Amino acid sequence: MRLVKHLNDFQHIQRQGIGFFIILDNANPVKVHSVGCSWVKEENFIRKVLTNKEKHGSYYWVQYWSEHYPSFKETPCRKCMS
Ligand SMILES: [Zn+2]
User: Fold this and answer.
1) Using H for helix, E for strand and C for coil, what is the string for 10-74?
2) How far apart are the C-alpha atoms of 60 and 39, rounded to whole Å?
3) Ligand 1 centroid – CA 21 distance (Å)
4) Which of 37, 42, 46, 47 is deepest in the core (most CB within 10 A)?
5) Residues 15-30: pLDDT tens digits?
6) Number of domains the chain contains
7) Is the pLDDT at 82 greater than 90, yes or no?
8) Ligand 1 being an ion, which residues bring their Cβ within 5 A of it?
9) Ligand 1: distance of its center to the CA of 37 in Å?
10) For the chain, what percent of residues have pLDDT higher than 70?
């Protein structure tokens, strides 16, 4: 598991299209998305990680994800993982 802290890292992961983002957010349940999900937006990453310096949440990347081994009690995205 890797904490994603830089925009070029985020963009690189999206271009490669491999693995999953686990998105932590103080105000919402933790979600896991496939990295290509259209609900995972660069503007949200910029706001949450760069502008707000992860005060309200963070982005992690994992290569593999199983509902049997959640890391943060995350739940699968309804759009990309149902
Ligand atoms: Zn998704």
Assistant:
1) HHHHHHHCCCEEEECCCCCCCEEEECCCCCCCHHHHHHHHHHCCCCCCCEEEECCCCCCCCCCCC
2) 15
3) 9
4) 37
5) 999 999 999 999 999 9
6) 1
7) no
8) 33, 37, 39, 77, 79-80
9) 4
10) 100
The pair of three-digit structure tokens given for residue 9, joined into one six-digit string: 């890292």
Tokens of residue 32, six digits: 């896991």
Residue with tokens 């949440």: 57
Domain that holds residue 39: 2-76
Mean residue pLDDT across the chain: 96
Q: Is residue 82 part of a domain?
A: no
pLDDT score for 13:
98
Q: Evaluate whether residue 81 is within a structural domain.
A: no
